Amino acid sequence: MSTEKHFNLAKKEYERWGIDVEEAFERLSKIPISIHCWQGDDIGGFEVNKSDLSGGIEVTGNYPGKATTPEELRMDLEKALSLIPGKHRINLHAIYAETDGEAVDRNQIKPKHFERWVQWAKKQGVGLDFNPTLFSHEKANDGLTLAHPNPDIRKFWIDHCIASREIGEYFGRELGTPCLTNIWIPDGYKDTPSDRLTPRRRLKESLDTIFEAPIDENYNIDAVESKLFGIGSEAFVVGSHEFYLSYALKNRKLCLLDTGHFHPTEMVSNKISAMLLFNDKLALHVSRPVRWDSDHVVTFDDELREIALEIVRNDATEKVMIGLDFFDASINRVAAWTIGTRNMLKALLYALLMPHVQLKQYQENGDFTRRLALLEEFKTYPFGAIWDEYCKRNNVPIKEQWLEKVEEYEATVLSNREAKIHSDVH
Ligand SMILES: C[C@H](O)[C@H](O)[C@@H](O)C(=O)CO
Ligand SMILES: [Mn+2]
């Protein structure tokens, strides 16, 4: 049976519950996912004086073919974008600046170092988001940045964050869509601190200085990302959830929740409605923690669906800014982007195809039997046929057919990079 026939039959099943599939497509097409560039090169970046990855995050695996230049990274992103339905955004880090061979330290980065990214984004029709990089640098080697006791080091990182906001503003002006500039810092201690307040006070003061200059929110929106622990900051993280939740609320900033930054049984899906009652917007880094903040590729699992359900059923598709944050170097990196982003979109489509009106009513009536029955039965509704049609209409491969494209790209492009590396070495 053709995709269209499958779709028409499936559509009828959803219509029996009053669900408008065409409207779901329309709504989904308006939800941009911010795709993180750093999956493409294992968070390496292109600095002239490049440092090893630090900050308590880890990329494991050595799958061949990673991008080693901005051109390669953009090319790989284009390939992934060609396999993902809809128009999305690309999320950059400061280490992806292009300085034409000049060593430019982080406190000196300027919009001009991202001109090529902006030109490329215009061509692709994508928005850009941004992150200052407060790790993989000699001034972050002791695991402290904005909360550092040394005022000179603090100032260096404050200046980097100020420069980053200006780059965000430049993206927003150039691309006509506000850039989300998100600050995440690794600061913390391996072992039990003897003073938690002082580093937190310093972080608060650093943030106050960073955000002193107002920037038009039509161009740049600021976000702050909390964390529970990292490698080397097991006992204490300065920028904890409570810290940033309070800071964001008081200073009208966006709180960014990374799904890997909480206790293993603590669910981000359960936080969205609570936070939306007090915040106009919030931001997400959708990741997949496996036993720790391991940043595995996002799968179509229970928590992903629950996050999407919370966004959709609370009418928050314009309030929750969805970004991805995973980095797996043990598989093809273009496939990693494709799988993770398609899964995020699938989860949103799944959520858009639920009978929310009835489900909410059942709960209000105390009819928990119907609520459970329907939530479970909809898991096996013919969702796949609707997803295939969405992919078809967006001119991207249906089902696993995208994999052939990635394999072809690996054979013709990625494997040549390996050959080049080897011939350069010998
Ligand atoms: C590279 C990212 O900015 C980083 O992953 C950060 O967002 C994070 O989640 C750290 O654990
Ligand atoms: Mn994150």
UniProtKB/TrEMBL annotation:
It is found in: Cytoplasm. Mn(2+) binds at residues 261, 293, 295. The keyword Isomerase applies. GO terms for molecular function: L-rhamnose isomerase activity. Keywords: Cytoplasm, Isomerase, Manganese, Metal-binding, Rhamnose metabolism. Pathway: Carbohydrate degradation; L-rhamnose degradation; glycerone phosphate from L-rhamnose: step 1/3. Its cofactor is Mn(2+). Its EC number is 5.3.1.14. The keyword Isomerase applies. Catalyzes the interconversion of L-rhamnose and L-rhamnulose. Belongs to the rhamnose isomerase family. This is L-rhamnose isomerase. It comes from Lederbergia graminis. The gene is rhaA.
